[in-house]
Amino acid sequence: MTVSAMLTLLVQGFGKSLEIFALTLLGSLPLGLLVMFGRRSRVAPLRWLVKLFISVMRGTPLMLQLMVVYYGPFLLFNFTPPGNWRFGAVIVGFVINYAAYFAEIYRAGYESIPVGQFEAAQVLGYTGGQTFGRILLPQMIRRVLPPVTNEVITLVKDTSLASVIGTVEMFTRAKQIVASPNTPGMLALAAAGLFYYVFNYIVAFAMERAERSLAYYQ
Q1: Cβ atoms within 10 Å of 186's Cβ, excluding its own
Q2: 4-38: b (≥16 Cβ within 10 Å) or e
Q3: Average pLDDT, the chain
Q4: pLDDT digits (tens, 9 = 90+) for 149-196
Q5: Cα 47 from Cα 41, distance rounded (Å)
């Protein structure tokens, strides 16, 4: 295998990794906000149910969760989901896992806002939705950006776990190249590591710029 062919395979795998990354963020960031509201709900059964969900998602390996999501419908209900469920299971598993982490990050940011902000909004006659959208949310975003950045960087690397249920992303491509005869195995691993590093650097740079753009909330 030539270096050019190797890089072509890795780029194809990186495209799948990027797809997992983007869809996970698209689903988990807003879902985490909903989970946070459930975590803070005044309805005790809902609050405890959400706390249990967060505990399970954070307390068990993502690899295990992916396997449960993928094999669960058939093993539990003898039902085979239609379409490309292998990739769908990856997205579902990643989204619910990261939503749990984002929910706790959001909660910490929300609860760190001084109570005087809530009281001032009440004095001004703001509704609950207006208080959150106009006053609390901008401050919360600024406070949670650093820990969210850490989770996003972790997500880039965690995309490699999709291989546990047979999804071929970049790390799987690299392993296939290493296992094949007459291939530049170590070079493939080094190239895959470089792909991960460069993409993580871009993500960290973009998040840092976003953090600086919101510095006026300090």
Answers
A1: 9
A2: eebeebbeebbebbbbbbebbbebbbebbbebbeb
A3: 88
A4: 999 999 999 999 999 998 889 988 888 888 887 777 688 889 889 999
A5: 5
Q: Whose CA is closest to 103, among 63, 56, 70? A: 56
Q: Which two tokens stand for residue 5?
A: 């062919």
Please give the angle made by the CA atoms of 66, 68 and 72, to the nearest 5 degrees.
135
Q: Are 168 and 177 contacting, i.e. CB atoms less than 8 angstroms apart? A: no
How far lies 207's CA from each of 96, 138, 211, in Å? Answer: 22, 15, 6
Q: What is the pLDDT of residue 217?
A: 47
Ordered mean pLDDT values, 10 residues apiece, the chain (218 residues): 82 93 95 94 93 95 94 88 88 96 93 81 79 81 88 92 90 86 80 91 89 67
Which run of H or of E encompasses 109? Answer: helix 85-111
Q: Which residue do the tokens 């030539």 mark?
A: 2
Contact 192, 174 (CB under 8 A): yes
Q: Which two three-digit tokens encode residue 10?
A: 């890795």
Q: What is the helix, strand, coil percentage profile of the chain, to 5?
A: 85, 0, 15
